[in-house]
Amino acid sequence: MELRPTTDRAKEALFNVLRHLLDWPSMHALDLCCGTGSIGLEMLSRGAASVDFVDHSPVVTKHILDTLKAWDLDKKGQAFQSDAFRWLRQGGQAWDLVFMDPPYGLDDYSKLPGLVLDRGLLARDGLMICEHGPEMSESLQPLSGYEETRKYGSVHFSFFRNPTEIES
């Protein structure tokens, strides 16, 4: 699998922030472009109610399904093989947390957060986090709901809130 897993340092820093922002036992999350699934699996290990994993690779999807089953988490997690844009356009439930980590070189990367918000896929008080490289920061900041970007070496996390929540 050709993957770029989130560094341990960045993941630890991210979850240190998230532990104060989320109600883990009631949280339904989406790990979009999940790769190894380490972010979503960490969410489940911290008590998330459920996590949906989405990746375009059938190999990755099978790996996630096998891991969920092996760790007896298959009742709390589901893995779907799909293109991120197609998955988001299909709609579905609104998640409390959407984490996305598409390939850094993806041409339409900055369209993904808007698609989540426009389709109503982020819960009213939900949080969306986009992992990206330094070159994407400026293109994400003008998007609706943008709050901040946290930097951990070459790994950047941009945080978004549902704009309807911000306006309230």
CATH superfamily of the domain at 9-52 and 67-92 and 144-168: Vaccinia Virus protein VP39
Strands across the major sheet, in which order? 3-2-1-4-5-7-6
Low-confidence stretches: none
What is the CATH topology assignment of the domain at 9-52 and 67-92 and 144-168? Rossmann fold
- How does the overall form come out from the CA principal axes? globular
CATH architecture of the domain at 9-52 and 67-92 and 144-168: 3-Layer(aba) Sandwich
Helix content: 25-40%
How would you characterize the largest beta sheet?
Answer: 7 strands, mixed
Structural class: alpha/beta
Amino-to-carboxy terminus distance = 43 Å
Count of alpha/pi helices: 7
Taking all Cα atoms into account, the compactness measure Rg is 15 Å
**H-E string:** HEHEHEHEHEHEEH
Strand content: 25-35%
The pLDDT mean sits at 90
Strands, total number: 7
The CATH class of the domain at 9-52 and 67-92 and 144-168 is: Alpha Beta
Record the SSE blueprint.
Elements: H1 8-18, E1 28-32, H2 38-45, E2 50-55, H3 58-70, E3 77-81, H4 84-90, E4 95-100, H5 111-118, E5 122-132, H6 137-140, E6 146-152, E7 155-161, H7 163-167
Parallel strand pairs: 1-2, 1-4, 2-3, 4-5
Antiparallel strand pairs: 5-7, 6-7
Structure description:
This protein is of the alpha/beta class. It has helices at residues 8-18, 38-45, 58-70, 84-90, 111-118, 137-140, 163-167; strands at 28-32, 50-55, 77-81, 95-100, 122-132, 146-152, 155-161. The chain has a domain at 9-52 and 67-92 and 144-168: Vaccinia Virus protein VP39 (Rossmann fold, 3-Layer(aba) Sandwich). It has a 7-stranded mixed sheet, with helices on both faces. A hairpin with a 2-residue loop joins strand 6 (146-152) and strand 7 (155-161). The radius of gyration is 15 Å and the shape is globular.
